[in-house]
Amino acid sequence: MIKPLRGMKDLTFDDAQRFVHIVTTAIKVAKRYGYGYIETPILEETALFKRSVGDSSDIVSKEMYQFEDKGGNDVCMRPEGTAGVVRAFISAKLDRQPVKQKFYYYGPMFRYERPQKGRLREFHQFGCESFGEASVYEDFTIITMVSQILKELGIGFDLQINSLGCPECMPPYRNNLVGFLTEIKEKLCEDCNRRIGTNPIRVLDCKNETCQSLLEHSPKLINHLCDDCDRDFKKLTALLDDAGITYTVDTNLVRGLDYYNKTAFEFVSNEIGSQSAIAGGGRYDKLVEYLDGKPTPAVGFAIGIERIMELVQMPETKREGYYMGAMVPEAIEKIIMLAGKKRETDKVTVEYNPKGFKSHMKGVDKAHARYAVLIGEDELAQGTVWIKDLESREEKTIPLTSFL
Ligand code: HAM
User: Fold this and answer.
1) What residues contact 117, with CB distance under 8 A and at least 6 apart?
2) Is the CB of 159 within 6 Å of ligand 1?
3) Of 9, 101, 301, 395, which residue is 20 to 30 A from 163 by alpha carbon distance?
């Protein structure tokens, strides 16, 4: 029997319902914030991710589903959504228009990671990207939007925030950090040693406990921000305080993608094990320019749908629509015709097999239908249907003509 690939799974039954509930709730909130839908290809040129997510990031250096297609092109299954949306934004020349653009998307992402609970090789994200707004108010608004989505899904969270500075304050800090790391080099893990040369900021994110305790005394960017970044970060925390959104400042939060500057954030849950990040995002003011577009400030986030599926409270569903069945074989076609008409306006479940009353009523419960509609011998002879409202428990026999 052919099974799904390791780290990939089918979404069926309850999972599929959870998925749809999460996406529809997120879309509802995103629309309230002025976001419109965007769809971009799953397959892109590998160069797109190398240049945006970053050559030295784990995602690009270890986890890409990368291959040569039949035309000899170096292509890659998208590991995340932002790069494709930025490419589409530039391809459509939206970077040359003065209007601000806001997009939402959802769909599969692919990372060749070691599968474990909460970590898949194919997973789904819901994301939003806002272009053209440099104000820190937009960072605050984006964070508010994620909290609102989680709130509407009934999910508790911890919010962690940090500032990654800008091209003015980050380079001197990076030099400072490299100096510190070089001094403690021997005690750091192999990965960290490699990163000192390739991407020193990512050392701060190392999960190794020894490294983490050594990093407690590392220089913190938050104490070396330029005036502009410092003012924005203080404004962001003040706005979050005013809005009653609790957060912690995590000076080691650097995110696994290289395109961020200024605000970076992560929403985590302590109820789903070690893969606890349920959403992440931040500002990426240089990415449009870096991918050959006109300089355009931008900020966004993505939610990990499978991780949210573990936590979501499904709302109680009410009985809905009709269940229709025949109690004698001669009535089946009448039922099928009636169902076709009723489906122009309502949800209908039809049972093709003639059955006894009790058996049909079990079907009504299974379909979670509000109304049971049955035709037996008498109803067929008299041109009527028997109908019961399962909420009010009221039942009656009415002419076929008044049923429709
Ligand atoms: P990210 O933090 O890499 O950010 O991913 C966002 C979310 O996707 C994570 O918080 C997590 O819930 C989920 N996720 C990531 N990897 C996996 C996996 N292997 N299995 C299951 N879930 C996973 C981004 O992708 C950025 N593009 C977010 C963004 C949008 N930043 C700005 N705009």
Assistant:
1) 272, 273, 274, 275
2) no
3) 101
